[in-house]
Amino acid sequence: MRLSRYFMPVLRETPKEAEIVSHQLMLRTGMVKQASAGIYSWLPLGYKVLMKIDRIVREEQNRAGAIEVLMPTIQSADLWRQSGRYEAYGKEMLRIADRHDREMLYGPTNEELITAIFRDGIKSYKDLPRNLYHIQWKFRDEVRPRFGVMRGREFLMKDAYSFDLTPEAGRLSYNRMFTAYLRTFARMGLKAVPMAADSGPIGGDMSHEFIILADTGESQVFCHKDLIEGAVPPIDTDYDGDLSPIIQRWTSLYAATDEKHDAAKFDEQVPKDKQVSARGIEVGHIFFFGTKYSEPMGCKVQGPDGQKIVVQMGSYGVGVSRLAGAIIEACHDAAGIVWPVPVAPFEVGLINLKAGDKDTDAAANDLYAKLEAAGIDVLLDDTDERAGGKFATMDLIGLPYQLIVGPKGVKAGEAEIKVRKGGARETLPMDAALAKVVAAVKAKRMLA
Ligand code: ATP
Ligand code: MG
Known about the structure:
Bound molecules: adenosine-5'-triphosphate, magnesium ion
Largest sheet: 9 strands, mixed
Oligomer: single chain
């Protein structure tokens, strides 16, 4: 992409309405624009990030055996009456009447709809286990939408739903999603720690929130330091193998959100110098709830002996749009965003320091063509802004690698590489610089 033809409305000043750094940076870099409270348009730069997050989430869901569907945003109130949640959900639900005065709603989540779909589509225990997911916009009329896309009213969520014959089989499905989440967040360059979470009114211990630590997080969390400093799980997980060692490793150390926190246990299980009490951002929530929806909605299968068996279910959410903000909270410095390669809007920012100068243009265009040919997602700054402004913008938008070409370098046949994270610089012959950047990007595409 050439910046001269792109749409990237960068702001020089920090917008006053933004309280936290990720929100400030998303507005400043022109990633999003507020349409109304808690509702955002995703502008080109932001949309690219959102789609990269979306893709990682999808790849990892598919890898774990979940099957993608797409359910509508608008649902019928009657469906929600079947589970008894229509009245219970309260003011967070946006209720709508159509022209025939039929009661509709903008889905805040999809347990009811997926349960009805699955119920009507299966017959026998042989149709189990299954896991269906979609990535779709949700609406929750939050009391206090804030922090930009982190707590929006309209937001993009991945929600998966597992269906099993027995609670034991349900636990295996839960473990697959648990593992898929570890992989998903690791690939985005995040250290998301699974923490025991409140499982709501139906009880049970099968609920984890995946939390990344940040001072601006809305949750108070407590955990063992090793979970944060320890290595992330291997990226080559074999889902046909035994996942219990992975689950065991992550759940044997204390980690809980405030609703589940037990101060006495924390002191007993975690040495003082390993105790972490911090703020965190919830980026995912997984939950096994058995027959909570399948029972009232009659989601049953015929068992091996002909008897009807109520299906065991779990649900698994990822805050896809929240992640765009959460990643920035975790990856920024004083100059701006520092994107991890897998979610960066562009992988390389190519700076032409003197657009309009024949030789510099030729060199920049040549590098641009070669980067594109190598399959690199590149943004070429070919505008006539002055050098200082170009550097500042490139740092602000946080592309992982910068390749800088100016008249002096071109004369010497050289280009400069700047690594955004840490700021290391190196001047190399043109082709060597190109090869180095291409190799660096490719090596970092799959974070382990
Ligand atoms: P929270 O406690 O933050 O309100 P929740 O428990 O209501 O979250 P879930 O219903 O489990 O959230 O939704 C799954 C995921 O969707 C959450 O883990 C979070 O990442 C994301 N999410 C929930 N509410 C919002 C929101 N208002 N804006 C953006 N993302 C959200
Ligand atoms: Mg909520």
